[in-house]
Amino acid sequence: MNDAFDLLSTLDADIRRATDALLAEQRADGHWVFELEADATIPSEYVLLRHYLGEPDDLELERKIGNYLRRIQCDHGGWALFHGGAFDVSATVKAYFCLKMIGDSPDAPHMARARLAILAAGGALQANVFTRILLAQFGELSWRHIPTMPVELILLPRWFPIHLSRMSYWARTVIVPLLVLAAKRAPARNPRRVHIPELFAPAGTRVPKKKTHRHPGWALFFNGLDVVLKAVEPLWPKAMRQRAIDRCAAFVTERLNGEDGLGAIYPAMANAVMMYDVLGYPPDHPHRAIARRALDKLLVIREDEAYCQPCVSPVWDTALMCHALLEAGGDESVEAVRRGLAWLTPLQELEVKGDWAERRPDVRPGGWAFQYRNAHYPDLDDTAVVVMAMDRTRHTAGGSDDYAQAIDRGAEWTVGLQSRNGGFAAFDADNVDHYLNNIPFADHRALLDPPTADVSARCISMMAQLGEGLDSPRMRQALDYLRREQEADGSWFGRWGVNYVYGTWSALCALNAAGLDATDPTVRKAADWLIAIQNEDGGWGEDCDSYKLAYKGYEPAPSNASQTAWALLGLMAAGEVDHPAVARGIAWLRIRQGDGGLWPQDAYTGGGFPRVFYLRYHGYPKFFPLWALARYRNLKRSNDRRVAYGM
């Protein structure tokens, strides 16, 4: 008994140190926002965009971005999609081009190593579609090497099999301005006249065979269609082409989103700026100017390094911080949560019917976006997490009903976007026209936003926390979907976090919230899987390489703070707080807590697009471990070992 008392007492001190550190990071207006880092592609594209536009030199910024790119170059000579990852030809081509643009000599050792790695992979022509478009803009290759996406696509009726409304939000916002760029084919200004012919392999070079997600039949059809489109493209009526270009410009302008940018994601924002440029908008035109300022708000500039974020995550960070602090408890934490929720409340979108209304026109708006502002594109994951934080606060922190309207509207919007298969996607309902991932343009296999286990789990957690019972048809449908998605080994795929550890944590929280305990076979199997994959050191880790084209199971990796916390939170949701595996995981976190109260982590544990784009959430190793430690302490001190909330 004394040992247990001493453990919890010292655990209080660890929790206090982490809490104090995170309270200090709260902004004056009540929110939190942590850095969101991707790979080399975004900072490289930012520099190349400036040279595409012919903007005045910013040599100091280029120097800092160059330092960043050189630091993250890998031992294999190129650049990876995540920390410690394999060579990626697209990321490496862009990083090499960027470094050469800012003055690095091709003969420099780091450039020579990168060039050899690119040529060994078959040269720059083996890069993905978006990289080849950039190369075509700079005149490095012909537009014949780019799959044709005629700008007239914007004019097609909604029933047409290839239509923008059938694609994901991120695809829409990226593609629409890109249609104009492909139609106009305006060359980059490139005032320094830097080119990279050395990255193209000689004709006849043997190219390593790549695995593809494309179905042979669909690939044959769409490749044939691409040949036809290339042949007839010069024959499009000029009046129709201009009407399509005008429609694209109107689409972008309607969704310009102020200084938070089109779709609030870098690729769409950059394409919008270039679109306005090719349409002849001068730099000081209000639309072009505000679109350009939005990009600079993504920069992270330090004393000797700089990089560009793909987007920012203040709503997500603030909502998750609220959950972690509510678990940590204490008057100071509760007051910080109230300030965070006061910041979140007016960000709820109650007026704009975004693109999601194409499929759900009768649903009222009520969601939150991921970023500071993104009115056309709120998401279900953020909305569910915010609603649960507000609900927990009103029940445990003074009984206030200040959040009742926000909770009701957020829940109404979320459940209104349930897909027909019972699951929930991030931004749309029934975005499941999977044949579209076979078009040549979709080599990233991320053109769609279908329901996923992790988002569905979050929505189930929200519904259950708000009192929806198992007798509810929509709850039954959602739980049936979640059960169907469980892998044979007991895990769940994690679309927005890496990967099966994230998906399994999410699902176990949902099942617990719905009232299913450790005796349920679905819960038992998942808990056993988490216990089985624990590393010998007591932590958990999973590599981004677990995102395979076909399921091959969990990819073990060195333990890290965020994935260890997810595994612990999942096991505690499954009723396993007293299991030795949980005690070992808690010990792993405690040993590795830094002097400042937080945890270091280089691993990328956020998902952008599986196999294509990953994210390093700098906040994840800060607030998730606090959440896990505090929950462990609270459950150990409680007579009831059951987690009482949806997360």
How is this structure best described in words?
The chain folds into 3 domains: 32-36 and 312-637, Glycosyltransferase; 41-48 and 62-144, no CATH class; 147-189 and 212-311, Glycosyltransferase. The protein has 22 helices and 5 strands. The protein has helices at 2-23, 41-53, 59-72, 89-101, 109-120, 129-137, 169-184, 216-232, 238-254, 266-278, 286-296, 314-328, 331-344, 380-396, 404-416, 453-465, 473-485, 500-513, 521-532, 561-573, 580-591, 620-637; strands at 36-37, 299-301, 306-308, 606-609, 613-617. A 3-stranded antiparallel β-sheet has the order 1-5-4, with no helix packed on it. A two-stranded antiparallel ribbon has the order 2-3. Strand 4 (606-609) and strand 5 (613-617) form a beta hairpin. Helix 2 (41-53) crosses helix 4 (89-101) and helix 7 packs parallel to helix 10. It is globular.
Ordered list of secondary-structure elements with their pairings:
Layout: H1 2-23, E1 36-37, H2 41-53, H3 59-72, H4 89-101, H5 109-120, H6 129-137, H7 169-184, H8 216-232, H9 238-254, H10 266-278, H11 286-296, E2 299-301, E3 306-308, H12 314-328, H13 331-344, H14 380-396, H15 404-416, H16 453-465, H17 473-485, H18 500-513, H19 521-532, H20 561-573, H21 580-591, E4 606-609, E5 613-617, H22 620-637
